[in-house]
Amino acid sequence: DIQMTQSPSTLSASVGDRVTITCRASQSISNWLAWYQQTPGKAPKFLISQASSLGSGVPSRFSGSGSGTEFTLTISSLQPDDFATYYCQQYKTYSRWTFGQGTKVEIK
Amino acid sequence: EVQLVESGGGLVQPGGSRRISCVVSAFTFSSYAMSWVRQAPGKGLEWVSAISGSGSSTYYADSVKGRFTISRDNSKNTLSLQMNSLRAEDTAVYYCATGGDYGDYWGQGTLVTVSS
């Protein structure tokens, strides 16, 4: 099974900061990676597919990059709505998703 | 606007059964695979099961294989998950999501609590 590891687990930042979250796969997944944002009590919200393709309506301050085993999610200028938990998810294996453990972005 | 609405959650005794459902609107339901993802209290996301658009192919996490059954009724735009032999560790919010690659749309979730 493919394992996904995110770092850091928690990140403290201020509004306006540039934030980067890393996701590593236990084996190459090409670019079959998605990112989600989840706020407390809400369902996950899709952000990015294929490592770098922004979902419809997702603000351009979000960007993704990487391929193979190492990926990053970057928020160029953190906004108040962005304080949330972020998850990566591999889909190299169709219909057998694996998620990272999550990265909580909290207010500094 | 695509909407997914789950229902059927509640309190179940260990060893018991529960069926949860997800109704999807404003979406070409039969054309897409669908998935269930759960989240235990205070924990991360765990993929549970998926089903192809036609319903002919199903997939399960090892943790639920043999106990859970996913199904769909394309005439009613409804996805279901039959959960048997429930354990305390199955306690979670269960989300349905569209897609077999990634979940571009998600429901609001339904809480299943397994406790005596």
Task: Set down the secondary structure blueprint.
The complex is a heterodimer of chains A (108) and B (116).
Chain A: E1 4-7, E2 10-13, E3 19-25, E4 33-38, E5 45-49, E6 53-54, E7 62-67, E8 70-75, E9 85-90, E10 98-99, E11 103-107
Parallel strand pairs in A: 2-11
Antiparallel strand pairs in A: 1-3, 3-8, 4-5, 4-9, 5-6, 7-8, 9-10, 9-11
Chain B: E1 3-7, E2 10-12, E3 18-25, E4 34-39, E5 45-51, E6 58-60, E7 68-73, E8 78-83, E9 92-98, E10 110-114
Parallel strand pairs in B: 2-10
Antiparallel strand pairs in B: 1-3, 3-8, 4-5, 4-9, 5-6, 7-8, 9-10
Distance from first to last alpha carbon of chain B = 40 Å
Helix content of chain B: under 10%
Q: If helices are DSSP runs of H or I spanning 4 or more residues, what is the number of helices of chain B? A: 0
How much strand of chain A?
over 45%
Q: Percent of residues of chain A in helical segments? A: under 10%
Shape of chain B: globular
- Oligomerization: heterodimer
What is Rg of chain A? 13 Å
Overall residue-averaged pLDDT value of chain B? 96
- Number of distinct beta strands of chain B: 10
Structure description:
The complex is a heterodimer of chains A (108) and B (116). Chain A has 108 residues and is mainly beta. In chain A, 0% of the residues lie in helices and 49% in strands. In chain A, the strands form 2 sheets. In chain A, strands 2, 4, 5, 6, 9, 10 and 11 form a 7-stranded mixed sheet that branches. A 4-stranded antiparallel sheet of chain A has the order 1-3-8-7, with no helix packed on it. In chain A, strand 5 and strand 6 form a beta hairpin. The radius of gyration of chain A is 13 Å and the shape is globular. Chain B is 0% helix and 48% strand. Chain B has strands at 3-7, 10-12, 18-25, 34-39, 45-51, 58-60, 68-73, 78-83, 92-98, 110-114. In chain B, the strands form 2 sheets. Chain B has a 6-stranded mixed sheet, with no helix packed on it. In chain B, strand 5 (45-51) and strand 6 (58-60) form a beta hairpin. The chains are: A mainly beta (108), B mainly beta (116). The interface between A and B is medium-sized, with 23 and 25 residues.
